[in-house]
Amino acid sequence: MLLADPCEAMIDRYLESGSMYLLREDGVPACVTVLADLGGGSCELKNLATEEALQNRGYAGRMLRFLMETCARTYQRMYVGTSGQMVPYYERFGFSYSHTEREFFTRNYPEPIWENGFQCVDMLYLKRDL
Fold first, then answer.
1. By the 8 A CB rule, do 61 and 46 touch?
2. What are the pLDDT digits (tens) for 59-82?
3. Which band of pLDDT confidence, cut at 50, 70 and 90, is reported for residue 10?
4. Domain ranges, residue 80
5. Residue 111: is it exposed, middle or buried by C-beta count within 10 angstroms (0-12/13-18/19+)?
6. What is the CATH number for 25?
7. What is the value of pTM for the model shown?
8. Is 3 within a domain?
9. CB neighbours (10 Å) of residue 28?
10. In a domain? residue 72
11. pLDDT over 80 at 5, yes or no
12. How many domains in the chain?
């Protein structure tokens, strides 16, 4: 989970309020995520991380498709908060822009977070009807 969120304190916060899902491949943990109930028929994907040695093999996509199918029985909408660098990834799965939480990363993390050479400042929220 630290691959997708480098702050243990932040992970602890949403682990308490969410449900963890683990995808295994041949008995080995490949991908993990946390899903939180937001109320009102909405849920939020809080963390989607694939083991470094297994990245770029489609595990995160499999996990996301599983969650969208499973959550459609309970929820009407799924949200995900992410950095600008990851927006195109989630758009491939039908997510679209919802709103921005300004300076989320700089206010909530003790150290700057960098992704592909860019500092993460604002959290972009995307949504998808299920």
1. no
2. 999 999 999 999 999 999 999 999
3. low
4. 8-129
5. exposed
6. 3.40.630.30
7. 0.82
8. no
9. 9
10. yes
11. no
12. 1
